[in-house]
Amino acid sequence: MYASREDIGYDFGDESKVRSKPIKPNPNIDGGWAWMIVLSSFLVHILIMGSQMALGILNMEWLEEFNQSRGLTAWVSSLSMGITLIVGPFIGLFISMCGCRTTAIIGGILNALGWILSAYASNVHYLFLTFGVTAGIGSGMVYLPAVVMVGQYFQKRRALAQGLSTTGTGFGAFLMTALLKYLCTEFGWRNAMFIQGAISLNLCVCGALMRPLSLKDRREKYVVRSDSDGNRAKAQSHSTETIKSNGVLGEEPEKKEEAANEEVLGSVQHIEIGGKSGSGRSMYGLRLLKTVSQLTVTVRKGFALWYSSYFGAASLFTNRVFVAFIIWALFAYSSFVIPFIHLPEIVKQYNLSRQDNVFPLTSIIAIVHIFGKVILGIISDLPCISTWNVFLMANFTLVTCILTLPLMQTYVGLAVVCALIGFSSGYFSLMPVVTEDLVGTKHLANAYGIIICANGISALFGPPFAGWIYDITQKYDFSFYIAGLLYMVGIIFLLIQPCIQKKQPSEKSTEEAQV
Fold first, then answer.
1. What are the transmembrane regions (predicted)?
2. Rounded Cα distance, 446 and 205, in Å
3. Neighbour count for residue 128 (Cβ, 10 Å)
């Protein structure tokens, strides 16, 4: 069971509006085509996130080919991984205008183009543009819709669905590493990137599977299914009522906007009907005008939703819990990435290379990470369990492991800590669920775009910062300690803000009683 917004300090207004509606379960919610959406998202994680975790193979080829410094060459991979996440807020604008399916298909083409153009690179700076920026933006345009669509199609089993779909990252890390190794050995790195670009066109197929829910289906999703699920009622029905909590937009401005848009289209249709007696050329012009008007209305509505979510009077940033979530995301992701980047060097310093070659510590993290996502998703969907509490417990476990890892100097000790890091980092599958609980499905694309943007900044600067600390101290210990302490600050923000949100309404009611 997920944590409702009331669990973290939200007020939902009149609940009777939800219960008064008839129950109309939709076969595509939590079943039917929803599992095709999970399959699509799973494949997206294999092709995008899995490929990015296997870029170390290409990084060695680029070092040998271009003879540049390790720091400069590493920025190619960092740019690709960082931009994939950083562009999240802007991809939210595309989703608002075009929908998830169109955005994902365009992103698949752009990602494949980035891989193919990178095969003709003459220097590292060329790769910055083609692979880092072009392929990175394309990856972001597919990744965000893949996460958002799972959230739209699932209600009761959202955590499990997100867990299953995101396990593609772990599977992809193994598959893509083996594939790129084979392709580079047999055909060279340039042909390998060309072939990988062709494979990436399958992202367009994944995007085509993202069939959008109709407005009727979305409304049915938020109907309370039975009295036994009464404790979930307050987290639903966003399409049928105006939310009174901080940061969630009301429906009245949208109704006015839709009325204005319908008036514009109606006037165009009236002109078209009146001009039927005219020439064929004028009729063609009227049809063209109608098409342009419809496109303009779609763009206006999408931009209005995107702009109001970020900059409007009731924007997402007025939601204090969500702002705390952003601060947490700025520190959290680097604590997961840093071990992947620096563990091989730590193993070499401790003279554990022989054991690590048999079973690499990074592989332990990746394997257990797969099981962690699924198991944490199953636990979160249990009726007596709060997703918010599972999310916080996993974070506490991960930050403890990050702070403990420098103290382990044996392979067994490091392997145990790495296994715990892999399992606890399975909370990544809960992030879309927690985000949806905070802002609602309607604003999930924009809100989750901000969260992954913060993760992207963390991933972009975290590993270089850890390397800089090593250059100063000649130890990786302080890198993990500083990353762990910053991570703890983010967790404290998550703990404090819900308490403030719950306290404020009670104080307000006390003041009213005194008056």
1. 33-55, 75-95, 102-120, 126-148, 160-180, 192-210, 321-341, 361-379, 386-405, 411-434, 446-466, 478-496
2. 24
3. 17
Summarised one tens digit per residue, pLDDT across range 79-107 is: 888 888 888 878 877 887 888 899 999 99
d(CA 329, CA 72): 26
Indicate the domain borders of the chain: 27-212, 312-503
**Hey, what are 143's tokens?**
């990744």
- CATH of 312-503, picked from 1.20.1250.20, 3.90.226.10, 3.30.360.10, 3.40.50.800, is 1.20.1250.20
* pLDDT-based confidence at residue 24 (cuts at 50, 70, 90): low
Q: Which two tokens stand for residue 473?
A: 């101290």
d(C-alpha 272, C-alpha 277), whole Å: 10
Cα-Cα-Cα-Cα dihedral of 364, 369, 370, 372, to 10°? 130
Distance CA 150, CA 369 (A): 20
% of the chain surpassing 70 pLDDT: 70
**Alpha-carbon distance values, 144 to 148, 202, 374 (Å):** 6, 16, 20
**CATH H superfamily, domain 27-212:** MFS general substrate transporter like domains (1.20.1250.20)
Segment among 160-164, 238-242, 366-370 with least mean pLDDT: 238-242
Which tokens is 444 given?
């999930």
Mean pLDDT over all residues of the chain?
A: 75
Distance between CA 130 and CA 466 in Å, rounded? 27
Indicate if 312-503 has the same CATH topology as 27-212.
Answer: yes
Using CA atoms, how far apart are residues 71 and 73, in angstroms rounded to an integer? Answer: 6
Calpha distance 104→108 (Å, rounded)? 6
pLDDT tens-digit series, residues 40-59? 999 999 999 888 877 878 88
Rounded CA-CA distance 450/456 in Å is 10
Show the tokens assigned to 461: 């600067």
Q: Judge whether 501 and 318 are in contact, CB under 8 Å.
A: no
For residue 3, is pLDDT > 50? no
Q: Are the CB atoms for 193 and 58 separated by under 8 Å? A: yes
